Amino acid sequence: MKADVTTLDAASAGTVELAEQIYGLEPRQDLLQRMVRYQLLKRMAGTHHAQDRSEVNVTGKKVYRQKGTGGARHGDKAVPQWRGGGKAFGPKPRSHAIALPKKVRALALRHALSAKAKAGEIIVLDKAQSDGKTGVLKAQLAKLDWANALIIDGAVVDAAFARAARNIPNIDVLPVQGINVYDILRRKKLVLTKAAVEALEERFNGKASGETSQ
């Protein structure tokens, strides 16, 4: 499929061919859901911690004598029944990450790109370069109607462009190595530079299907 190439000044810069095997698939919502869940769980800190009865700092002395009180029989105050005691089955530090095969992750990325292409929300940009002025870049993006976009550049993002874009709300800039399903889906438009298009084609065609890591 062909896509028009634009510049930041909203001028035409020709066309580019987008590979059908990357941008022409019928999107599968189940794959996208699995990949987003995988990414969100993987980035959870998992540092939650509650003290159990062996960790709380309370006396170990028996509360009162075993018999003759007319109440329940209790030992020390570290048990969960008492205020200040340890929590039973409380959360402990752990990883929330789940397993997802590389083939599924690679396929999900292609389906995310295809979903954007099918919705007409993929834009090919000639070059992502700027003088580093946020106001100038903001005006250019407004002229292009890119109010909510993920911009993917080649292997290296232009430092001035990244600096100008980082203070603009709802605009994300990533190198092509950082492209991922969650960020693609959370932004309205996906802007790929010509360098990013070439890198993605090389990434998917240079390896066997499904061997691309995410």
UniProtKB/TrEMBL annotation:
Gene3D superfamilies the record matches: 3.40.1370.10
Region of interest: Disordered: 64-93
Keyword terms: Ribonucleoprotein, Ribosomal protein, RNA-binding, rRNA-binding
Origin superkingdom: Bacteria
RNA-binding listed as a keyword: yes
GO terms, molecular function: rRNA binding; structural constituent of ribosome
GO CC annotations, alphabetized: ribonucleoprotein complex; ribosome
Gene Ontology biological process terms from the UniProt entry: translation
Family: Belongs to the universal ribosomal protein uL4 family.
Subunit structure comment from the entry: Part of the 50S ribosomal subunit.
Stored NCBIfam families: rplD_bact (TIGR03953)
Function, as annotated: Forms part of the polypeptide exit tunnel.
Name of this protein: Large ribosomal subunit protein uL4
Gene, per the UniProt record: rplD
